[in-house]
């Protein structure tokens, strides 16, 4: 049964029929998109834990359970926000959006319209203590035309740059009217701006970080804004905590000594939840992102329990990845096994789309490569088991997506643990309701799961732990 590091013994346990069944459940409409911090995420986590129990994985969370709950701190603009121009309100979260949570109480403050003034023309104006109304202008470094979520990125860059410039010029508040390039992103960004910001809660509090209150207004309100002379704002930031959860399970190794060490398989079970409808569909299912990996990890667990490796396999389905890698940040900080026992992290995100014979391995080249031995094991496993053509371009520091920094291996790499990232990369349905289970290439999903399994098996069977590249530092 056990043929050494080059012969993963239970590949047949990873089958497309079971993957498809699990995928259509976890990414089905009944899970409502699994938004972090909601009952939908808890339902998905409970489903994953139940499957782990059925497979025979042992609980490895807190207090003898499959769960590691962690506090998620949310900072948002409280209900009742008021934006008033010359005595007439703008409808918050319809005509106007609050760009960032902030406490602000301004009454009939003089407001000046500066249009598209920037550079030298802006420096000639005395804006100290004034509320400033302006048109959004193109950011100095707009995102490239083919980047994912470009409309959102463009609008965010334009907002941040314009607000910072006007704050530096002395403005006490700003009202920004969308230009032609950002007005189309207004509706899609409203839910995110209204949700606010999230973080793991370690300090027990959160305070607004915005320098000045900033309001973003639809282009249809241009005439009202440019003629208004007085601004009244009543904004309040509120902060509260509620839980998200990691699902943690282990398949013990067969060697009485080596089983105290762990090969960690990593993914996230959350997605975007229920949001604004697109073509009549309001459930953002997240089939590729990241139900594909969640069910792939279950398949790997079936293989591992059928034929245990020397080392133990630790499976962590992280919560709240979409909120900023919160679950993996928490687990890397507070692991339920000794941190030193984690010999490698094999993380994956989105493994079921694009060309059937292509994939990517991030963390395989400098400056992201933190373990030569782990990368070599993954590339060798690909040659033996999967046979993918590896797209290396997305792992370059110069790639504008910065995709390496957007998944759950990052906190582990920063903690000095050998880490790699398996993915089949982005596609046009990324973060839309069209990321649905029927669009997944289940055969490709199975190939990537077998590749991950074969890599983890090699790490488990090799006597020496994969080392970390001396002097590795993971910073942008």
TrEMBL record:
InterPro entries: M28_fam, Peptidase_M28. It holds the Pfam family Peptidase_M28. GO terms for molecular function: metalloexopeptidase activity. Residues 246-453 form the Peptidase M28 domain. One of its GO terms (biological process) is proteolysis. PANTHER family: METALLOPEPTIDASE M28 FAMILY MEMBER (PTHR12147), PEPTIDASE M28 DOMAIN-CONTAINING PROTEIN (PTHR12147:SF26). This is Peptidase M28 domain-containing protein. The lineage of its organism: Bacteria, Pseudomonadati, Gemmatimonadota, Gemmatimonadia, Gemmatimonadales.
């Amino acid at each position: 049964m056990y043929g050494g590091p080059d012969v993963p013994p239970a590949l047949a346990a990873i089958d497309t029929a079971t993957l498809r069944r699990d995928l259509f459940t976890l990414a089905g409409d009944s899970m409502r998109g699994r938004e972090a911090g909601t009952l939908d995420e808890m339902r998905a986590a409970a489903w994953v834990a139940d499957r782990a129990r059925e497979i025979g994985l042992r609980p490895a969370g807190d207090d003898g359970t499959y769960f590691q709950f962690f506090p998620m701190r949310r900072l948002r603009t409280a209900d009742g926000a008021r934006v008033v121009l010359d005595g007439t309100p703008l409808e918050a979260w319809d005509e106007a959006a609050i760009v960032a949570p902030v406490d602000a109480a301004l009454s009939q403050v003089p407001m000046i319209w500066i249009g598209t003034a920037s550079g030298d023309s802006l420096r000639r104006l005395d804006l100290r203590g004034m509320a400033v109304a302006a048109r959004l202008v193109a950011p100095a470094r707009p995102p490239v035309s083919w980047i994912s979520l470009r409309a959102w990125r463009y609008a965010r860059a334009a907002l941040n740059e314009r607000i910072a410039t006007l704050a530096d010029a002395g403005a006490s508040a700003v009202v920004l009217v969308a230009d032609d390039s950002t007005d189309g992103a207004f509706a899609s960004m409203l839910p995110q701006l209204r949700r606010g910001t999230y973080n793991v809660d370690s300090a027990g509090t959160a305070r607004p970080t915005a320098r000045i209150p900033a309001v973003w207004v639809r282009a249809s309100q241009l005439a009202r804004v440019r003629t208004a002379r007085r601004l009244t704002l009543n904004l309040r930031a509120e902060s509260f905590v509620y839980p998200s959860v990691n699902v943690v399970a282990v398949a013990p190794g067969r060697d009485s000594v080596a089983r105290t060490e762990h090969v960690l398989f990593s993914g996230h079970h959350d997605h975007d939840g229920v949001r604004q409808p697109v073509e009549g569909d309001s459930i953002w299912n997240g089939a590729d992102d990241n139900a594909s990996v969640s069910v792939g990890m279950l398949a790997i667990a079936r293989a591992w329990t059928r034929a245990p490796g020397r080392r133990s396999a630790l499976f962590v389905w992280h919560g709240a990845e979409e909120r900023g890698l919160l679950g993996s940040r928490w687990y890397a900080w507070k692991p339920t096994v000794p941190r030193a026992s984690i010999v490698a992290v094999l993380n994956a995100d989105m493994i079921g789309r694009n060309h059937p014979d292509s994939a990517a391995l991030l963390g395989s080249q400098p400056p992201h490569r933190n373990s030569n031995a782990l990368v070599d094991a993954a590339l060798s496993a690909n040659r033996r088991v999967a046979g993918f053509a590896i797209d290396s371009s997305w792992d370059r520091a110069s790639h504008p997506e910065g995709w390496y920094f957007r998944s759950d291996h990052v906190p582990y790499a920063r903690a000095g643990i050998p880490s790699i990232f398996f993915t089949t990369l982005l596609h046009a349905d990324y973060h839309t309701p069209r990321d649905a289970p029927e669009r997944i290439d289940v055969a490709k999903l199975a190939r990537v799961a077998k590749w991950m399994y074969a890599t983890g098996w090699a790490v488990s069977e090799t006597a020496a732990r994969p080392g970390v590249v001396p002097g590795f530092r993971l910073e942008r």
